[in-house]
Amino acid sequence: QVQLVESGGGLVQAGGSLRLACAASGRTFSTYTMGWFRQAPGKEREFVASISWGGINRNYADSVKGRFTISRDNAKDTVYLQMNSLKPEDTAVYYCNGKRTESTWSTPFGPWGQGTQVTVSS
Questions:
Q1: Which residue has the higher pLDDT, 19 or 3?
Q2: Which residues contact 113 (CB under 8 A, 6 or more apart)?
Q3: φ, ψ for residue 11, nearest 5 deg
């Protein structure tokens, strides 16, 4: 079954930047919509950004609009999340997943992985 591995997280000061990557193995996700989600301590997992299979349609949560950019490289089976102007409230574990174009996020491409920790200090 497909495996999704997130990387690129770390500790950064407020105002800094990080670039997250999500790589697939076992099966390509080139025909799937891909998305980034995050979960902060004591909170539910929330949507951050998504990108269509062709990279044309991109959506962002209101909290990250203008600061985060999602992109993908289907040849590498990798999706990225460029995070700029980071704020302490962005601190969370970040996860990626995918879905078929015609489906919802209730039917994801694969199981949720371990994610990558992003910590933003004041």
A1: 19
A2: 3, 4, 5, 6, 95, 96
A3: -100, 130
In angstroms, rounded to a whole number, what is the distance separating the alpha carbons of residues 94 and 47? Answer: 10
> Strands, E, within the chain: which ranges?
3-7, 10-13, 18-25, 33-39, 46-51, 58-60, 68-73, 78-83, 92-99, 116-121
Q: What is the pLDDT of residues 21-44, one digit of tens each?
A: 999 887 778 789 999 999 999 999
Q: What's the rounded Cα separation, in Å, for the pair 26 and 111?
A: 13
Interval 101-117: pLDDT, tens: 889 888 888 888 899 99
Token duo for residue 23? 């790589």
- Sign of the torsion formed by the C-alpha atoms of 61, 10, 33 and 47: negative
Burial (CB < 10 A; 0-12, 13-18, 19+), residue 2, is middle
